Amino acid sequence: MHRDLNEDRALKIIKKSTVTSETDFANEIGMLKSIDHPNVLKYFECYMDEFNYYIVTEFCPGGELLSFIVKERGINDW
């Protein structure tokens, strides 16, 4: 929750040990920052500590998109 704006936010935590290239990761964050489209998740901020990256994005309620597609179409449609 963003305290000042009273808006829900999502936080994705990525372990640094799973990132194979910090340059590629930085490029991905750069792309997220540059995208402003109503059908794309909005990026707000990125933080890091000794062990993790923390990416703050728009909160999208409703669950995982893949789960929704599988449920609506059925697994045999793939």
- Helix-strand pattern: EHEEH
Structural category is alpha+beta
Radius of gyration: 15 Å
What's the pLDDT, averaged over the residues?
Answer: 87
Helix content: 25-40%
Q: State the shape.
A: globular
CATH fold category name: Phosphorylase Kinase, domain 1
What fraction strand? 25-35%
Q: Can you identify the CATH class?
A: Alpha Beta
The structural domain count equals: 1
Strand order of the largest sheet: 1-3-2
Fold and architecture overview:
The protein is of the alpha+beta class and 78 residues long. It has one domain: Phosphorylase Kinase, domain 1 (2-Layer Sandwich). It is built from two helices and three strands. A three-stranded antiparallel beta sheet has the order 1-3-2, covered by helices on one side. A hairpin with a 3-residue loop joins strand 2 and strand 3.
Give a short overview:
The chain is α+β, with helices and mostly antiparallel strands and 78 residues long. The chain has helices spanning 22-34, 65-73; strands at residues 9-15, 43-48, 52-58.
Please write out the topology:
Layout: E1 9-15, H1 22-34, E2 43-48, E3 52-58, H2 65-73
Antiparallel strand pairs: 1-3, 2-3
What descriptors fit this protein?
single chain; 78 residues; alpha+beta; Phosphorylase Kinase, domain 1; three-stranded antiparallel beta sheet; globular
